[in-house]
Amino acid sequence: MRKVSVILVVLLCLVCACNTDVKTVQIENKDFAKILFVQKIENNFTSEKLSKPIEDKEKIKKVLSMVEGLEAEEINTDELIRILEDQDNYYMFGFYKDDRTSLGRGDYGFQFLENGTILFSYDQPSTPSHPLITVNSHQDLLEEMKEILGITF
């Protein structure tokens, strides 16, 4: 009986270990974006003063490299929307292949919440997929990005 219990415990541990949906953020092509549009949502409102387009390809690639390798879990779109609706303040980073920044959804994007959590709208540029949420907080990363991009808001 003891032998059976040990085997069951080992199997349960293996099943639990294999059941995590933690992914590593990977961006295969960091050259796809022509424009990075950064926008701060403050008290559920934004303005032109809280927005900045970035066209420097090296800075865009640097920002994409900074999020690559982060651990994140899949969430569904409804949960992504619910999380954003519960936030008063956050930063949106939208990556665009061309000048269509005013036409809505970019080719890739993520949102930085005040607590340092990052929500990825989808896990690869221009690919329909599940949203991701980082497993850990990355508040310092937001400050580094703002410094590199010259963002003061």
Instruction: Kindly estimate the percentage of residues that lie in beta strands according to DSSP.
Output: 15-25%
What overall geometry do the principal axes of the alpha carbons give? globular
For the biggest sheet, the summary is:
8 strands, antiparallel
How many structural domains? 1
Give the mean pLDDT. Answer: 84
What is Rg?
19 Å
What sequence of helices (H) and strands (E) makes up the elements? HEEEHEHEEEEH
The CA-CA distance between the termini, in Å, is 64 Å
| Tally of alpha and pi helices | 4
Strand order of the largest sheet: 1-4-8-7-6-5-2-3
| Residue runs with pLDDT of under 50 for 5 or more positions | 1-19
Structural class: alpha+beta
Helix share bin: 25-40%
**DSSP, total strands:** 8
